[in-house]
């Protein structure tokens, strides 16, 4: 017999400790390894068959090779978000640009819009895509407001790029990690 939601809520001490991993579909494991380890700085864990595992802190990302990816960029969900410091958000955007990966920095604190001045700390989300078009995000709570920060809503098409062209341009940087 299945346990009901009400029964689960009533069991003392029943809880989830943390997120273990999430999985993303990719079409090219070599391109994914380059992007997630070199561009995003994840720690290579292992690669076997159609899976590549990369880690940030206690959370692993399982990149699984398949023919299709997540829903189109016209849909903002599902997406996966990483946390970063606000003081380095602009460095992240420059880093993405150095890899020809478009990104946007978005502030959703509309209540502060009339009074926001350059340098004021604000909560932002940096949106970008991996080479397979999977929507990704960096969150920062203390980014200095600047002309690079736009107000939500934003145009999802500003972050589009052709992942196959990106791979063709950057695959010479790919050096497989030892298995």
Provide an overview of this structure.
The strands form two sheets. This protein has a five-stranded mixed sheet with strand order 5-8-7-6-9, with helices on one face. A four-stranded mixed sheet has the order 1-4-3-2, with helices on one face. 21% of the residues are buried. The mean pLDDT is 85. The longest helix has 11 residues, at 29-39. It is α/β, with parallel strands linked by helices. A hairpin with a 2-residue loop joins strand 2 (43-48) and strand 3. It starts with a helix and ends in a 9-residue tail after the last helix. It contains four helices and nine strands. It folds into two domains: 17-66, 2,3-Dihydroxybiphenyl 1,2-Dioxygenase, domain 1, CATH 3.10.180; 77-159, no CATH class.
In angstroms, what separates the terminal alpha carbons? 43 Å
Q: How much helical structure, as a percent, in the residues?
A: 10-25%
Uncertain spans: none
Q: What is the domain total for the residues? A: 2
Q: What structural category do the secondary elements indicate?
A: alpha/beta
Task: From the alpha carbons, calculate the radius of gyration and give it in angstroms.
Answer: 19 Å
- Could you spell the SSE succession in H and E letters? HEHEEEEHEEEEH
Please tell me the overall pLDDT: 85
């Amino acid at each position: 017999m299945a346990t009901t939601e009400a029964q689960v809520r009533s069991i003392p001490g029943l809880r989830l400790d943390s997120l273990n991993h999430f999985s993303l579909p990719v079409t090219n494991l070599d391109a994914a390894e380059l992007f997630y380890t070199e561009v995003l700085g994840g720690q290579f864990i292992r690669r076997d068959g159609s899976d590549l595992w990369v880690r940030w802190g206690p959370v692993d990302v399982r990149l699984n090779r398949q023919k299709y990816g997540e829903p189109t960029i016209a849909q903002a969900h599902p997406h996966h978000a990483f946390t970063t410091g606000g003081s380095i958000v602009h460095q992240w955007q420059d880093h993405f640009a150095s890899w020809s990966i478009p990104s946007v920095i978005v502030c959703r604190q509309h209540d502060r819009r009339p009074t926001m001045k350059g340098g004021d700390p604000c909560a932002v989300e940096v949106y970008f895509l991996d080479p397979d078009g999977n929507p990704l995000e960096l969150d920062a709570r203390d980014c200095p407001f600047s002309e690079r920060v736009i107000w939500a809503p934003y145009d999802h098409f500003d972050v589009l790029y052709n992942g196959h062209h990106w791979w063709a341009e950057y695959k010479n940087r790919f050096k497989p990690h030892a298995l």
